[in-house]
Amino acid sequence: MWGKTELKKGQIGKVTILSNVNASKINGNTLTQDKRLKKGDEYRIYSYRVLGDSSYYGLGGGLFVKKSSSVKYETPSKKKLAELEREANGLSMIDGIDFNKIYEVKGTGEYKGYKRLKGYPDDDKYAIYYSGNFQSFHVTYEDLYPKNLKEKITWKYNGKKYTHTRSQLYSFFSDIIKLENLLGQSNGIINQDWLLQTFGDTYKDWLLQLQYSSEAASIVEKYLNFKENPNQVDDLFENNPPEDYEDAIDLSIWISSEEMSVNGDDIELVAHPMKIGNETELKMTFLKGFKGVVTKVLYHVPDMPLGYFNVENDSEDTFNGIRFKKVNKNVYINRDDLKAKGVL
């Protein structure tokens, strides 16, 4: 719980009603009063709108409440956001790891030059390698029980048989549009439930790779922070109330990473496996998803450090042609740049 409400996927903040106030529907540039919000109540916020000289918090369901002294706006701590993301993706609880027990050894073979971590959960199933430091690091992983990517797998759709290699199917799972084009349909039936029913263990194997890649980046991130601050590992997810960010940034020009996942049809910027030569590396990537499934890789941002979101200093940066701004521990992205790159 976060106060009186439960934090939900896509939520960017919450408001507490300090004195009775009206919520309104917004239709174009027209406001229509709809509901009376009572003092002491709390509401989830999913979006932010500017109309004329006024700003409005989106409560969901088309309802908005005007920014004023009658409402108090707060954003969730990074710790709460991270816990929500792991819960949504079925990942292990990284915060439960005892980083005193994690150590590193030199990488060997094709991983020479990397450091390999030991002592984390499931280190007998997949190996985590990294190079760099907390400010800028590179992560890759190795499945210790890899599947044969050349294996041919036969599956059925509408009574017709198809045969593809495991590698080809993994490519379909990463970009559902390819699968829709193959089947000649785009009516939205391809979701996680359909993929599980159609491909079974093959799809589960692919999901496991996503889990490995996500956990690898998170574990390295916290491990490096722990090395620098062994007595303050939780500082990465400070729970201090953030400042009111609208006073520091023009949201008509910038969009927060959290709001983008709601207003941009589940678009997220995350560490994602990317093939570079013969090696798979994790690179920051804009992805579009649907019901937990990655439907399209939109745009790679390979020059963005994996730990960028957790370095708390305010800054303005440009990665692969897209401008980013950090204000009060929140990350914002330039709307025009996102449109120019085809992300929005």
Q: Work out the helix count.
A: 7
Q: Indicate the percent of residues in helices.
A: 10-25%
Which sequence of strands runs across the widest sheet?
3-2-7-6-5
**Multimerization state:** single chain
Q: Which strand-content bin applies to the residues?
A: 35-45%
Distance between the termini: 32 Å
Structural class: alpha+beta
The general outline is: globular
How is the main sheet built? 5 strands, antiparallel
Give the domain tally. 2
Question: Residue ranges: pLDDT <50 for 5 or more in a row?
Answer: 233-247
Radius of gyration: 22 Å
Mean model confidence by pLDDT: 79
Counting DSSP E segments of at least 2 residues, the number of strands comes to 21
Instruction: Encode the helix/strand succession as letters.
Output: EEEEEEEEHEEEEEEHHHHEHEEEEEEH
Brief overview:
This protein has 344 residues and is of the alpha+beta class. The chain is built from seven helices and 21 strands. The strands form six sheets. A five-stranded antiparallel β-sheet has the order 3-2-7-6-5.
Structural commentary:
The protein has 344 residues and is α+β, with helices and mostly antiparallel strands. The chain has two domains: 13-74, SH3 type barrels (Roll); 80-145 and 206-340, no CATH class. Helix content is 23%, strand content 38%. It contains seven helices and 21 strands. It has helices spanning 78-89, 166-174, 176-183, 192-199, 201-228, 257-263, 335-340, and strands at residues 13-17, 21-27, 30-37, 42-45, 47-51, 54-60, 63-66, 71-74, 103-106, 115-118, 126-133, 136-143, 152-157, 160-165, 254-256, 267-276, 279-290, 293-301, 315-319, 322-327, 330-334. The strands form six sheets. The protein has a five-stranded antiparallel sheet with strand order 3-2-7-6-5. Strand 11 and strand 12 (136-143) form a beta hairpin. Helix 2 crosses helix 3 (176-183). The longest helix has 28 residues, at 201-228. It is globular and about 65 Å long.
